[in-house]
Amino acid sequence: GTFECRTVDTFIAFGSNGRVYSVPVAALPGARGDGQPVTTLIDLESGTQLAHYLAGPARATYLISGTGGYGFMANVEHMVSRNKGGKAFVSLGDGETICRPSPVSGGSGSQALPAATQVACASAGGRVLTFDLSELKVMEKGGRGLMLIDLEAKDSLAGAAAYTRSVRIAGIGRGGKEREETLEIRSLN
Hints:
The chain is mainly beta.
């Protein structure tokens, strides 16, 4: 991914084990060379893969969720760790993975979006649930969060997104055909 940010912002990497790793954007290599792997800037636990990334100002808020259907909101400043080993932030159950974080508010530059008011959850089984963002709380210390969508035994959360007017869902539809649809807030309500 690419992230428009300033040198005073923080780069956050999410590990597959629920740990978050932070690096000041100013510490990232400049654009004059080939760069360097993120794993040289952090102490990644063995057996852990980096799953998702984000970069932004300390006050930027993100919706964090896992495939088990639970989620919460957190600011970038809550995810910052003092050591290279990161910190445990997202509690995941057996077999769960972290979903891509969704921006809620506080982006910088051209990424500055209006603050989200709604949350849309999509399950791998094809179900969609939407609700008001005010039902979620900001969890400074991380954790499991609240149940975003009640899932059936073999279903999982494909993703959760905070939105204002519309949300775009892409995936495989009936008959195995790729499908992409933009759902407006009027139809979702």
